[in-house]
Design a protein that fits this description.
6 strands; mainly beta; single chain; 3-stranded antiparallel β-sheet
């Protein structure tokens, strides 16, 4: 999930049995030294589920985050 106002991405674990989501981690889409206004927009996952891409409007960039979990686990 991309968090538009906070400029971050949150990863969840989905439990198929219960249908519940458990929050795993939230990370920024911005570099630590960025100092300005920003919001995020689009989020996409590559077809192998290894990388997530999120767009930053104020910084005018694409954040690329690598997944440490593999799809289907």
């Amino acid at each position: 999930m991309i968090n538009e106002i906070q400029s971050s991405v949150t990863a969840f674990h989905y439990d198929r049995k219960s249908g519940a989501f458990q929050e795993l981690q939230t990370v920024s889409t911005l570099p630590k030294d960025f100092n300005g206004r920003n919001s995020t927009a689009e989020v996409e996952v590559d077809r192998n589920g290894r990388f997530l891409y999120g767009s930053n409007r104020g910084q005018d960039s694409i954040a690329c985050l690598r997944s440490t979990r593999q799809r289907g686990r």
